[in-house]
Amino acid sequence: MSAVPESEIPADVPELEPREGQQVRYTTCYMCACRCGIKVTLENGRVRFIQGNPDHPVNRGVLCAKGNAGIMKQYSRAKLRAPLRRKPGSERGAGEFEEISWEEALDELTERLRRIRAEDPKKLAYFTGRDQMQALTGLWASQFGTINWAAHGGFCSVNMATAGLYTLGHAFWEFGDPDWERTRYFVLWGTAEDHASNPFKRGIDQVKRNGGRFVAVNPVRTGYQAVADEWVPIRPGTDGMLAMALGHCLLRDGQFDWAYLVRYTNAPQLVVQTPGEPGDGLILRDEDGAPLVWDLEQEACVDGRQAEIAPALFGAYTAPDGRPVKTAMTLLAERYLDAAYAPERAAEVCGIPAADIERLAAELAHVAFEEAIEVPCEWTDWAGRKHDRFIGRPVSMHAMRGVSAHSNGFQAARAIHTLQLLLGSVEVPGGHRAKPPYPRPVPPPARPARETAPDTPLGGSPLGFPVAPEDLVVDAAGEPLRIDKAFSWQAPLSAHGKMHTVITNAVAGDPYPIDTLMLFMANMAWNSAMNTAQIQELLCAKDEQGAYRLPYLVVSDAFHSETVQFADLVLPDTTYLERYDCISMLDRPISEPDGPADAIRQPILEPEGDVRPWQEVMIELGARLGLPAFTNDDGSPRYAGYNDFIVHYERAPGIGFLAGWRGADGDKPLRGEPNPQQWQRYIDNGAFFKYELPLSQQFYKFANKGYLEWAHEVGFIGAAEPIVMALYAEPLQRFRLAGQGLYDGPAPPDATDAERIAAYCDPLPLFYQPLEERRIEADGHPAYPFHAVTQRPMTMYHAWDSQNAWLRQILAQNHLYMNRARGEALGLADGDWVWVESHNGRIRAQLRLMEGTQADTVWSWNGMGKQAGIWGLEPGAPEATRGFLVNHLIDDRLPAREGEKPLSNSDPVTGQAAWYDLRVRVYKAAPEEQGSAYPPSPTFRPPPGVENGPLALLRYATHRARELRRSLRDTLTRGGWQ
Ligand code: SF4
């Protein structure tokens, strides 16, 4: 850990401007999800500039355009400035608001929530966006007693996260990273600019400087793909097929890490082979539940958890009870070596030549096995065996958006992890490394809460990881209990909930009507909805008596978003520079593979207007409602506010929201009693905490005795036992058996659910055509020859910054991008306005032709189109007149089939929103239609306190610059530039 001065400019930096009146404060950026450490220089109480914190583990000083432009977020015209209530008698969505006091707002909300809690707590649905405080909101929901809580993960990347947690015990991004320092071959599947931003810039730079190879698999060549050594222009939705074809080549050629698979995965475990009978496909276990393997020396089935045995990796055997069994690896090889996954077949599906697939597989194998590396270091494995080095397979991968956003994304991500396991490149030097508190047991042991009762907290978290049909959140008839239908037969492993279905389900009363929807930082009436126009209509839908079908909508946000416009009650949040916050290890960690880390935010500026951090509001509401975690026995508030809560709340003895400087004297890292000085210790250390593992614990964490014992001591895992990675995902087979009518327990309530569960809950990776695409083709819709996807620009985080005067100057209009040759063949020219039509509607957009787009794909930047008057935008703003939103074309339900219940347009295993399954056709707009986007945006009236109109402030400085003529030589030699 390094000490960073809080408010002093180091003396050895030449002064290039007057420093009197300047102060430096350290905090954490929130202009995207990356959570870089920043160093904010203040001058006379205003931000002079923002720099990256060179000591911070996430970004090591790197700052991106968004991070720099955080200044202008403070000067956004869209900032909300006071609590607002929809004017009595006005229509929802009309934007008729009146300012009210916080006391009035909280009284109104408390009264309503108290009534809901006393009657039926699940009538409150509480969903949050990219908020980074899910540990607190989840605790609050659990204490309130509603199972209807989740964050935005169901429409973000739950496919990636769940596939990883059910396979490796960790995953990509927040769960694990490439070993940038040592990797020699890095494969990036899909887009990563939005989440893994600055760390990937540093990482890719490091790989290239070390002479490594960077391969980018993506239908679009922008961002990171533009600097890749090889661009693999894949057809959207076919990544799983490519990963399996690569696995096919590795298995066919014997290029896999036999010893690694035997030691660290369930590949040698025996799987029962009795098709059509109960128990088929489950792991063979002894009476104590131990998984059995075939020991080659004893020639018998033995407990696979023992160290000194010789398990067979391949083979078919007979169990002691006479049932036929095969090793999981044998089943995997049979699946992968089928002609359905041969390179020639994959070439047809993915649009990548078979020879390239063969070459890529050979390159992966060559680097993994011929360029293996060693890190000399004594370490002890779980069985007590000593080793003098770590063996490394220097191949690493990353996948997130792209792969995730398809209805086959869970199995695609499983296929990518399987590829990593075949290469033996997980948690090894040069490979993909877990970030503590990961890895966790496969899957993590938490199950989702199901039972609710008036005035009663839940028995656990509303979210978790089902391993069998008994864990589903369904009623006795098998019907969903959650408003989003998460953890139901329609999405059994929906570990992050299904936020994208909430409004549609709630308005339809399916599975039941709710009373109040509370949203925090989630723009569900615009770019976070799959079917934007319909969602706006649904929010205003009334019943026969003229009452809103969704009776009450509460929105907390710092800015005037499209969703705020529909709220009944608006609670204005602060910006990230105006509040305390914690980036907790109980939540979405910022750890690195070499050790756990967390961070804080501290107020740099005074909040403007009558705004309050949502964190403080949560604590106060918890106390007002008498939720046990937030009140004393006598009903008085337990905490003086958010800071007090963060310091004193303990999830388990010694474990709290912040892991640094615990213990009364602040001398206990990770676990210890509360330390009243904890916030100050973070501030003194540059707003972050990092614990560096000794080298002997940095690799093979899943089987590393030293690491496992330490991880158990600090509460990361429940027992210091090895974590066995799952090549074969047995929980999925339990669901599949239920779908086949062969499970001794709960069963799907109807044929549709049964058929889907049986087809997609496969314990081995498989590839299938995305669901909507398949239905559109089979149902005889007109031809939609193009896949339509979105990408993330480096300069905008989704829809967050169309209010930001600096970032708008970089990007204020999105275009529809198409492959140049394909566009010209269609008679389209660069700059044409075109219609883009799906089975769900059509939009008009301006076309750009470019070489770096796969021939069957069109794409655009995500979330750029906006509604006029929202986000402080003037009526003629490019975002509202020339920008467009692809979401208008997407449906949140699959095309209907007669006699079938409505099905969400989601991955059938995890419920992940299938945004990228969209198919469209593109044709030129008529001459009179050229020049503007469709649908046109009405101009909305801003609420009290919010301005819109032409931007008044484009430039910003706290004083006139003095070094305008400074030469590069001077900068480099005299310094002062960092
Ligand atoms: S990558 Fe994200 S968190 Fe980091 S500086 Fe840029 S906007 Fe801020």
TrEMBL record:
Extent of Pro residues compositional bias: 436-447
Residue stretches spanning the membrane: none
PROSITE patterns registered for this protein in UniProt: 4FE4S_MOW_BIS_MGD (PS51669)
Residue intervals of the 4Fe-4S Mo/W bis-MGD-type domain: 22-78
CDD domains per the UniProt record, alphabetical: MopB_CT_2
Subcellular localization, as worded in the UniProt entry: Cell envelope
Region (Disordered): 430-458
Primary residence: other
Stored Pfam families: Molybdop_Fe4S4, Molybdopterin, Molydop_binding
Keywords: 4Fe-4S, Iron, Iron-sulfur, Metal-binding, Oxidoreductase
Matching Gene3D superfamilies: 2.40.40.20, 3.30.200.210, 3.40.50.740, Dimethylsulfoxide Reductase, domain 2 (3.40.228.10)
Family note: Belongs to the prokaryotic molybdopterin-containing oxidoreductase family.
Name of the featured protein: Formate dehydrogenase
Organism: Halorhodospira neutriphila
